[in-house]
Write a structure and sequence with these properties.
The chain is of the alpha/beta class. The chain is 47% helix and 11% strand. Helix 18 packs antiparallel against helix 19.
């Protein structure tokens, strides 16, 4: 068989998707997957790809990985592997479990389990309410077993506690003891914390506690002035914690100012943002969310070259861009400005998933898990939103848009 019979080209990828074989990939091998299996066994990243080691785990991965949350296309996962991506990040709640199913099926069908790093995440904070430590442990183990079943594997490489915004969760002995048992059983090789909010405090708690091996944190160029977060990441990396970055392109936001879109192409915006993250050597890999082949190709190109072009440098130096993005850092300083007691940071994340990612599964899940009285119901009595961000997030506008979608 000639080499071009193995290759999943752009034309072949698009033709397969157009013919409906993408959906078939969830039930069995597509022709493209079948042709690629032999090549997949020996596929290795290009020699010029930059690798970094995930702290004390010893795992070496390209500096660009893939966040699978927004992907529902099994062919995309195959293409990512063939390009050289080796770390796949998913979670129990993504697409209500179907995301793990997709990742697991592709990895199994390609026969590459020993060649990839699979990271998944489970929630615990909402599960702990009203439960004894033993009940909590049982719930965590049940959730993990569901993950393994969907991923079609006996173990995950990195098991993280999802969406941690409180340092107390990092130090929770019941969670730590359960995670120790999971590692001892062989169902996870390493443990981690994933954090969207209060990141510096959470990361510092991981460093101080010394138990968790990795941190998956929001990190992008809009946070360049956050010295506390920068130091927390540097200190954690120095202590041997593996640092993985998410929200690297500021939440997938599209520039709302038409003039800005005309000034900077989508490629310039995307690559400049990702290069900014990966030029920080304390960050070991990034997991940009990808939903198309073009996005995967563009993102992974940074693994071979993260020098700025002139246009990318201009983009990053343009302060109006950071303002127009309106990226919510989840700092929670807006809470005091809301008379209704709404959980504004989580509502802002819900908006990001719905309006910027077009991921309505994750938006719905996030919204449904906001405690009663703190979700959109807290906003219904206000004729006009008066909540204020200390930076540049237009909270009233985003709340109004959420009402149109969900109220």
């Amino acid at each position: 068989m000639q080499k071009n019979d193995h290759d999943l080209t752009r034309r072949g990828f698009l033709a397969t998707a157009a013919s409906g074989l993408v959906t078939a990939g969830l039930a069995g091998l597509t022709p493209a997957q079948a042709l690629a299996q032999e090549a997949a066994q020996t596929a290795t990243p290009k020699k010029d790809v930059t690798f970094r080691t995930l702290g004390r785990t010893g795992i070496k991965v390209p500096i660009v990985s893939i966040g699978a949350m927004n992907a529902d296309n099994p062919e995309l996962m195959q293409a990512a592997y063939e390009m050289g991506i080796r770390h796949f990040d998913t979670a129990a709640v993504y697409q209500f479990g179907r995301n793990e199913q997709m990742v697991g099926r592709v990895v199994k069908q390609m026969g590459i389990r020993d060649k990839v790093i699979i990271g998944t995440k489970i929630h615990t904070t909402e599960q702990r309410r009203g439960l004894t430590p033993e009940q909590h442990k049982t719930r965590m183990l049940k959730t993990l077993n569901g993950c393994l079943k969907r991923l079609k594997t006996d173990y995950v490489d990195i098991l993280s506690i999802h969406d941690v915004g409180d340092a107390a969760v990092v130090a929770d002995e019941a969670i730590i003891e359960t995670m120790k048992e999971i590692v001892k059983s062989g169902k996870a090789r390493f443990t981690g914390i994933a954090t969207h909010s209060n990141m510096a405090t959470v990361i510092n708690a991981v460093t101080k506690g010394g138990f968790y091996d990795t941190v998956l944190t929001s990190f992008n160029f809009t946070m360049a002035d956050d010295t506390d977060l920068m130091k927390a990441i540097a200190d954690a990396a120095a202590a041997g914690v593996g640092i993985l970055a998410m929200k690297t392109q500021a939440g997938g936001a599209q520039l709302p100012n038409p003039a800005s879109r005309e000034t900077y192409s989508a490629s310039v915006r995307n690559l400049a943002a990702l290069k900014w993250v990966m030029r920080n050597e304390n960050v070991h890999t990034s997991i940009p969310g990808c939903a198309s082949l073009e996005q995967v190709e563009e993102d992974f190109s940074v693994a071979s070259n993260f020098e700025y072009t002139e246009e990318e440098s201009k983009f990053l130096a343009d302060n109006s861009i950071k303002l127009s993005l309106g990226f919510c850092r989840q700092c929670r300083r807006c809470l005091a400005s809301c008379p209704g007691g709404a959980d504004i940071p989580t509502l802002m994340r819900t908006h990001m998933y719905a309006a910027q990612y077009s991921n309505f599964h994750q938006a719905r899940y996030t919204l449904d898990n906001i405690p009663s009285g703190q979700n959109l119901s807290a906003c219904t009595s206000c004729s006009e939103c008066v909540a204020q961000c200390v930076r540049a997030v237009d909270i009233p506008k985003k709340i109004a848009e959420l009402k149109l979608i969900y109220a």
